[in-house]
Amino acid sequence: MERHQDSVLRQVEEQGIDYIRLWFSDVVGRLKSIVISPHDLDKAFDEGIGIDGSAIEGLTRSYESDMLLRPDPSTFRVMGAPRGGEAGVMICDVFTPDSEPAASDPRRVLRDALARAEAKGLEFFTHPEVEFYLFERAYEQGVGLTPVDQGGYFDYVQRVDGSRFRRDAMRELERMNIHVEYSHHEGGPGQNEIDLRYADALTTADNLLTLRAVVKGIALSEGKFASFMPKPMIDHPGNGMHTHLSLFQNGTNIFHEPGAEYGLSRTARHFIAGLLVHAREYSILTNQFVNSYKRLWGEQEAPSYIVWGHNNRSALVRVPFHKPTKGTSSRVEFRGLDSAANPYLAFAALLAAGLKGIEEEYPLPEGAEDTVWELTERERKAMGIEPLPSDLLRAIESFETSELMADVLGEQVFEYILRDKRREWEGYRRQVTDSELRTTFDI
């Protein structure tokens, strides 16, 4: 750790960096930031920087407001400043004044989940495909959303705004040592996808916070607005974040078994079964907003049912094609995540569910190769196919009785999420919508 700190201090001095942004996440996954001068960097590493945690959603209770931010030097990046020059950025862990990890820090939740896996000799790797929309302007009440183009899936859109935007975003991420596998136009008008190269889950979660900030910043600098909202336009695809998951042990991918069906080991099959068995319990973390369920139940390849398959893009869990001679490529693709999830909490929940499946040796049911949407309700019942929660209320009901989620999140985060989501649902339920007015006003 000290070697990392020395490297950061030296880089800040050599590059003449003017200021340092210290980033952290609230429980919802919103990026929070404070700025310090390079002169205070030593203090930040050694003592932490004090903040009022009670002002941050879910971070602490009002009677224990003092918290400390301690930057993780391994996350140090240099990014361009809006008006020229360069700024240093680091992701922080949150601590109590007596130097204990804060129970409510989402990064701590994921760290603890990974530590439980590491105690079994396991490493958890993730590879996300991040979708978002690019609009001409931010949302304004009474003004329709205007995408920057009318392109579709993989279209080469010959418009300067979109093509320059993706190029600029990729360049900035690579400059920050966040490696992009590829990017392309997605299925909706103005919709884009950036895929990050696989990495350990904590690094991926940190990189996702940075990606959102970079994408939004570049969009604003070009007079546009980027949205990671799960379903911003009802007639177009939602913003998913399909994520590939794999477990390694001693440098070997333990999801791989030569000669097995789809190259999947028994461990991988138990892991998938865990994802399926606990899917309703963790859906409030992978799909945390009222709007998330409009994506899940909006068809257009979003998964609505708890099934797995190989060549089935309507499945919650898909087993992608792998190269038979390359065991490291065996993985499972979780298709339920949306781009607005808190990655720390979502990855912790997915890992916990998969490990539970391995520990208890959950049996994996038959995979579904038919598009689940095209089956009748009777056919789905005969096949034992259960639905995901159809709205946030049902997700809350499944979450609040889950011992697994209470264990992986800890009491403080678990209780905050319940309070926050109940509040969101009640606020949504009380609204009178345009749809209601159109259909009922003249009765």
TrEMBL record:
Q: Which UniProt keywords apply?
A: ATP-binding, Ligase, Magnesium, Metal-binding, Nucleotide-binding
Q: Where is the GS beta-grasp domain?
A: 15-99
Where does the signal sequence lie? none
One short Pfam family name for this protein? Gln-synt_C
Can you give the residue ranges of the GS catalytic domain?
A: 106-443
Q: Does the keyword ATP-binding apply?
A: yes
* Cofactor or coenzyme needed: Mg(2+)
InterPro entries, per database record: Gln_synt_N, Gln_synt_N_sf, Gln_synth/guanido_kin_cat_dom, Gln_synth_cat_dom, Gln_synth_gly_rich_site
Coiled-coil zones: none
- Top-level taxonomic group: Bacteria
Does the UniProt entry include the keyword Metal-binding? yes
Member of which family?
Answer: Belongs to the glutamine synthetase family.
Q: What is this protein called?
A: Glutamine synthetase
Identify the taxonomic lineage of the organism of origin: Bacteria, Bacillati, Actinomycetota, Actinomycetes, Micrococcales
